[in-house]
Amino acid sequence: MTERSSVLDRVLVLEMVRVTEHAAVAASRLIGRGDEKAADAAAVEAMREALNELDFDGTVVIGEGERDEAPMLFIGEKVGRGAAMGTPAGPRIDIALDPLEGTTITAKAGPNALAVLAISEEGGLLNAPDVYMDKIAVGPGYPDGVISLAKSPSDNVRAVAAAKGVAPADLIVCVLDRPRHEALIAELRGLGCGIMLIPDGDVAGVIATTNPDTGIDIYMGSGGAPEGVLAAAALRCVGGQLQGRLVFRNDDERGRARRWGITDLDRIYGLTDLAKGDVIFAATGVTDGSMLKGVKRRKDGLITTQSVVMRASSGTIRWVDGEHRDHRYR
């Protein structure tokens, strides 16, 4: 059982929902407008504003990129009320965030766009560079070690099928719809299992393995390393298994990893390597999806949101339906 953190005050649980709500509402104004960058920028600015109202000494360890590439919420940025005033104070918190997970989804008004973040005590979240990560994940209820990136996709599917008591052809695997996954998709189809191809949003894809209603048994494939840390934080709260391995396309990316203190470039990270100790995870729907409803605007000016917030130490999952009349959301 995960020990409850004395640093992560219970008040922060609902404060994290307020942060993701703020980002989701801002991004929702750009749904279907075809402008990915504008939607992302709106979410980033809103999330940063909300974080800077909180009384903690926060450090972004998973963000929009490195400082020279991201004007806001870059890796290493300090946030919190004190940071906004130039005098960081309060408990030291590490933050992993994706103000808009699913920028393309939002621009095209597709499903499952989210505003997402996770927090831990200082040192609790892997400070990963903004590179790709191979991932494999399953939900709770399987024996430890049922999945491994050291095994082939076929062997992983067979192992999960055996643990579930079904044939490989009875499983559904979630995979990002990308050209780089052509070989993976061909191998999986050779086994006869079903594949759910998603256009974006691999945090939601990993979390979907924990919900039997989605029909997804396994998540496989490469996506962003930041999303891998966020997904790990969620699984720490609800159960499940995940492994990740950083993927480097060139020497520049390898050099960036070394600058962040990563020396074993081939390491396979387990769930608690990516997110350890007590962790809080929060997400708010931007567009309607399998997990959360999206932001809605009513004729009377009321804005509604749906969010989820989880904590590793208690295993508590709270579903939060919000109604917003505050002028800041308009």
Description:
With 330 residues, this protein is an alpha+beta fold. It has two domains: 11-124 and 279-329, 2-Layer Sandwich (Fructose-1,6-Bisphosphatase, Chain A, domain 1); 132-274, 3-Layer(aba) Sandwich (D-Maltodextrin-Binding Protein, domain 2), CATH 3.40.190.90. The protein has ten helices and 13 strands. It has helices at residues 11-28, 36-51, 81-84, 103-107, 153-164, 182-191, 202-208, 225-238, 251-259, 271-274, and strands at 57-62, 78-79, 92-101, 114-121, 132-138, 172-176, 194-198, 218-224, 241-247, 279-285, 296-297, 303-311, 317-324. Strands 1, 2, 3, 4, 10, 11, 12 and 13 form an eight-stranded mixed sheet that branches. Strand 6, helix 6 (182-191) and strand 7 form a beta-alpha-beta unit. Helix 1 (11-28) packs antiparallel against helix 2 (36-51). The longest helix is centred in the first third of the chain and has 18 residues, at 11-28.
- Mean pLDDT reading: 91
Distance between the termini: 42 Å
Instruction: Tell me roughly what share of residues is in helical segments.
Output: 25-40%
Question: What is the tally of helical segments?
Answer: 10
Architecture (CATH level 2) name of the largest domain: 2-Layer Sandwich
| Structural class designation | alpha+beta
Main sheet, how many strands, which sense, barrel? 8 strands, mixed
Overall tally of structural domains: 2
Which residues sit in consecutive blocks of at least 5 with pLDDT less than 50?
Answer: none
Can you write the helix and strand succession as a string? HHEEHEHEEHEHEHEHEHHEEEE
User: Rg, please?
Assistant: 19 Å
CATH homologous superfamily caption of the largest domain: Fructose-1,6-Bisphosphatase, subunit A, domain 1
Strand content: 25-35%
CATH C-level of the largest domain? Alpha Beta
Q: And the CATH topology of the largest domain?
A: Fructose-1,6-Bisphosphatase, Chain A, domain 1
What is the global morphology?
A: globular
Strand tally is 13
